[in-house]
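Problem statement: downstream parser choked on a complex file, so we are re-checking the raw output for the zinc ion run. The parser issue turned out to be on our end (a line-ending mismatch), but while we're here, posting the original submission so the record is complete.
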Amino acid sequence: MSNFRIGFGYDVHQLQPGYDFWLGGIKLEHHLGAVGHSDADVLIHVICDALLGAANMRDIGYHFSDQDPKFKGIDSKILLKEVMKLIREAGYEVGNIDTTICLQLPKVNPHIPAMKTCLSEVMDVSEGDISIKATTTEKLGFVGREEGVSAYCNALIYKV
Ligand SMILES: [Zn+2]
């Protein structure tokens, strides 16, 4: 069992008009978009944090500072690719990841197959090892008021 390690990620981004809405590596058509230093893809950010956490390698902000102009507007898929490189260099491979997106609108479910395909290519991991779930918060809180989007991820990695 000592070859297995578990990690967890949590992230939030504001939703505002005039921004693109990147989620799970794909662009959603919506009148609001996610605000952030990068492309603000909350799902990719929690996957990065869960993988880094599992490997005990700090977090996404430690590796890709939001103060660094180099990362302004960057495609989060590039960050995820970089994280995969880091954990593989440390001798780990992904067992599986399980994620939940919390968003009031638009509906996420129709987009999940495309997100899984995209993320499996970026991570070079089988689609069967990437779970994406979606929930509203029943109109409660900042997610329910459509002020933001949040996500959670658990990741299992193992020493190759
Ligand atoms: Zn983020």
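For whoever reads this later: Residues 11, 13, 36, 42, 45 surround zinc ion (CB under 6 Å).
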